[in-house]
Amino acid sequence: SPDGSEVLFTRTEGEGSALFRVASLGGDPRKVVDDALYGDFSPDGRLVAFVRAKGSGSSAVTVVGTVGADGGNTREIARLPAAEFLGSAFAHPRFSPDGRRLAGTQSTSQLGECRAGPCGG
Question: 99 CB contacts (<8 Å, ≥6 apart)?
């Protein structure tokens, strides 16, 4: 989080994963959004950007969205067809310093796949 008091992490739940937040010093995790990978707090800490995968094969899309840090008010920002990311995926959303834009990386792993080392936001 912007003030360092919380961290975001993903946890596998059934067939998918969800994005959680927890106090930096420990405590009970709180779910922010279901069916999500990767996350980033907005500069004011009120929103969380996330990425989720929808569909498979040629109909697969990556959804980039925001949700209130309390888990409310989910909003889809963009749908990115998998065909635009041949052999890779859009991942790791990050807010700009003013909170008005989102950026991400193009990962050579499939969305949600971890090859070596830690994975998640």
Answer: 42, 43, 44, 47
CA angle 36, 11, 64 (to 5 degrees): 15
Q: DSSP class of residue 53? A: E
Q: Which tens digits make up the pLDDT trace of 40-56?
A: 999 999 999 999 877 76
Whole-number Å distance between alpha carbons of 39 and 71? 13
- The pLDDT of residue 84 is 67
Q: Which two tokens stand for residue 87?
A: 């052999």
Handedness of CA 10, 11, 13, 16 (dihedral sign): positive
Q: Tell me, what's the pLDDT at 120?
A: 46
pLDDT at 16: 83
d(CA 67, CA 26): 22
Tokens representing residue 84 in the block: 């635009």
In the predicted structure, residue 14 carries a pLDDT above the cut 60: yes
